[in-house]
Amino acid sequence: MTSPPTPPTPPGRRILLVEDSADAREALQLLLELDGHDVAVAADGSEALTRAVEVEPDVALIDIGLPVLDGYEVARRLRATPLGSKMRLIALTGYGQPEDRARVMEAGFDGHLVKPVDPDALSRELIAPTGQ
Fold first, then answer.
1. Residues 111-120: pLDDT tens digits?
2. What is the pLDDT of residues 8-49, one digit of tens each?
3. Where does residue 76 rank: exposed (0-12), middle (13-18), buried (19+ CB within 10 A)?
4. What percent of the chain is predicted at pLDDT more than 70?
5. pLDDT mean across residues, the chain
6. What is the CATH number of the domain that holds 77?
7. In a domain, 66, yes or no
8. Cys bridge to 19: 25, 49, 52, 123, which one at CB 3.0-4.6 A?
9. 16 DSSP β-pair partners
10. Contact 75, 107 (CB under 8 A)
């Protein structure tokens, strides 16, 4: 049984990509830009908070295992701001167990993607509304 085709992601979304691995960050940035998105990047949790204020993204893709502030703390701090209530937060992590997903959601994320990120799963997360 095949899954239904993923609807195309609306182009032109402002996305903040927070990933400490330069190779992973560059590859995911390229993928997102090829899909027509405007992508800002950050390499650690502190930089992510600064960049979020600067670019006011529609979506933030946040690695959980970040230096300075981990992804959980970034999500909590973003959610505590007016800006954070408007953006969709998607966790990027190497862990996909139910307890990992629960911890991500408790921190304020809207979505959870396991690395390496499946492009179809990413597209589905990018079109889902905040709070889903």
1. 999 999 999 9
2. 545 689 999 999 999 999 999 999 999 999 999 999 999 999
3. middle
4. 89
5. 91
6. 3.40.50.2300
7. yes
8. 25
9. 40, 60
10. yes
Q: Please check whether residue 43 lies inside any domain of the structure.
A: yes
pTM (two decimals)? 0.90
For tokens 């190779």, name the residue. 23
H helix or E strand, kind and range, residue 88: strand 88-93
Alpha-carbon span 125 to 132, nearest angstrom: 9
- Label each residue of 15-70 as H, E or C: EEEECCCHHHHHHHHHHHHHCCCEEEEECCHHHHHHHHHHHCCCEEEEECCCCCCC
Residue at 84: amino acid letter: G
Q: In sequence order, what are the beta bridge partners of 59?
A: 15, 88
- The gap between the terminal CA atoms of the chain, to the nearest Å, is 25
Please state the φ and ψ torsions of residue 11, each to the nearest 5 degrees: -70, 165
What is the residue range of 122's domain? 14-127
